[in-house]
Amino acid sequence: SDINECVIANGGCEHVCTNVHGNVVCSCRKGYVLNKDKKTCADVNECDDGKGGCLHICINTKGSYICKCQSGYFLETDKRTCKDINECQLANGGCQHICENTVGGFNCKCRPGYSLLENGSCLDINECEVNNGGCTHTCVNTDGSFSCACRPGYQLHADGSQCKDVNECTFKNGGCSHNCFNVLGSYKCSCRPGFYLQEDKKTCLDNNECQDEDIPCSHNCINILGSYKCSCNHGYVLKADKYACEDENECEKHLDGCDQLCINTIGSYVCGCELGYILLPDSRTCKRKNTCASGNGGCDHNCVYQNGTSYCMCRSGYVLQRDGKTCLDDNECMIGNGGCQHLCVNEPGSFHCECRPGYSLLNNGKLCQDVNECDKNKAGCSQLCQNTLGSYVCGCQLGYSLQPDGLTCIDINECKTSNGGCSQLCQNTDGSFYCSCRPGYHLSFDRKTCEDINECWLTQHCDQICENTKGHFYCSCRSGYKLLDDGRSCTDINECDHQNGGCSQLCHNLIGTHFCSCQTGYHLQTDMKTCEDVNECLMNNGGCSQLCYNQPGSFVCSCVHGFQLSKDSASCEDVDECKVNNGGCNKMCRNTYGSYSCNCPSKHQLGLDESTCWPYWCMIDRNLTDCMPCNHGEYQPDPGADNQFYQCTNGLMYLLMCPPGTIWDQRVWKCGDIMKIEFEMLNGTEPVNMTLVSVDDLCVDNFTGECVICLPDKYYEYTGDPRKFYQCVHDNLVLRECPDGTVWNKEISTCIHEVLPAPAQFRPVSLTEMCFYPNMTKCYQCQPGFYEDDDSCRRFYTCANGGLVSMSCPDGTRWNQTLTRCDNGAMC
């Protein structure tokens, strides 16, 4: 029959050996081509053919190749196409304001009113530094913009820069009681005649003209709102000029009530009776009476009786009294003032007129004319003389006051009264005064009020910011600058000298500011100061083909079991376990992708340890052509159970079983005590005899002390070494040790691979979930081994660091979960 040469040394093939009738055919795995010797395989450089389908960069590897992307791109899931990285999605690309993604990069931009710095931060533009921002009056800088403001009395035009005068009089008359007059930047109030302006310069109050000594009313003055009127005493009426009072003739107006005669008097009147009548006591009614017949009728002068009536008469210059008899001197001055304009002087039987001082009597002896005293040496006045009716008054020019003598004028020191109305300094002059201001102020248009001089408008006193104050100004600097000792100049502050400018890593000083940056492997936080480690593993797995471990400021790639890191420190290449100690196989070792397997020659079978090849002994129930005959009387251990063994009889092996409590001891080719054999195999000496102490104690001193009977086939923790544990064998504890690279797990009572700390990005999941690294933050640890992928024939998972890592078989192979390896003929 045909010999399968592929069984021995893989038929000399480096990769795949296919047995054909009488020969073998070698072939190579995908990514390799067969050399001319028809046995060895050479790597195919897929990058030579159209970059292997890579969009950007093609890197050849043994048996395959990988695609990489240029900076600013990441590799798509097809492992060939490169897609632009939107750097703006991660911390806004480090930009302070606007991040604009571009193909393969990005640009930082600033909002209007800011300028872009080299570090991507934005600096406010002070528009007020250029032409005062276009403002007529005041320019106020704000973050990203500016605004114009106007001085009091002005308002901002619709264009936002020009200032126009505010007509305060259009709104509620400027608060004025009467008249409002608008002026540039302000306004003034005034009052109508008869009113005066209060100290608030707005309110008008009535002026009581009756308190003026020169009021022209003859008798009484009555004040009214905004004016006054004159009134007369009883018996007088107001003349047409509305000022002078004249006697009211009650007799003409028939207001007297006299029975016969009415005689008007100054301010009053008297009743009289016709001849032959006498006035009754009511001083109104007349009664007829003849008095002449007896004693001259009682008349003082003459008694006249006529028409039945007697009456007394007086001589010229006398008047009959009310008794109708007595004659008294007629005081002509009592009637119409004797016709005199001023003074009437009565004399017995006659009178004469005189004038009041300041007047002279005319030739008619009754009328008076005013004497102008000012015509003669100004009547003694030192400055002004004003003639008045019957007199004169001295007056003074503006800025002088009249002395008590009524003649002399002296200078008025206006500064002594309310500082002359000056808001600051008042200087008296002869007949006048003037106001002045302290340094830093100038005189307003009213020539009294001092207004602050805004030195910041006049010249550029300061390097940067000028702050006006009352009567002065001071300079200050923008953020990032400090004021020098001259009080005007600004110099840059090196913020990096103080606590590194608040930067957690690198600080870069700029003129007027500074910015922070980070070392490689870190990125700047939104506070633009703190540097945070960049987890490179989150972006395209850090470029690692398998495992990516983030480190402060960097990262490292690693590989799952069965692979090792390539020279590029990113990709993983298969480890040929067969090159080291033949992979632990005692016969043939066959390397596989990510693993290996031990193979046995003809008529041998692989033991349960999957490393040792045992003869496939001929037994009564086997095909004798495919087995190995044994030597009569030979014993062989059963690789599957330590309490069984094989015995050869007539070339056939028979499976036998040791008595209970014993196992096969291959050292002496017989069954022996299980405790004794296991202890000797482990320690090389006999165990000491154990003595029962208490049911609660456990054996802790490796059989050097006393212990109780333990529970059969139970395991107990050994605290001295994580690789060691106790097993209860025949009521005694036996110290065991796990293989290299594994530790004892008391929870599941088995040896497991050492579990490295889980990467920081693992996350908690439920007990039923698997852990898929690196997309989760923390998960429950999986058990060492391989897991199939239900959705793919080529993909499988391996447990690394407690988490499942997705793997893929080479093209043309399928995952064999039974053999836990990639096979050509595996069924999906």
Automatic annotation (TrEMBL):
Coiled coil: none annotated. SMART domains: ChtBD2 (SM00494), EGF (SM00181), EGF_CA (SM00179). It is found in: Secreted, Extracellular space, Extracellular matrix. The keyword Secreted applies. One of its GO terms (molecular function) is calcium ion binding. It comes from the Eukaryota. This is Uncharacterized protein. The lineage of its organism: Eukaryota, Metazoa, Spiralia, Lophotrochozoa, Mollusca.
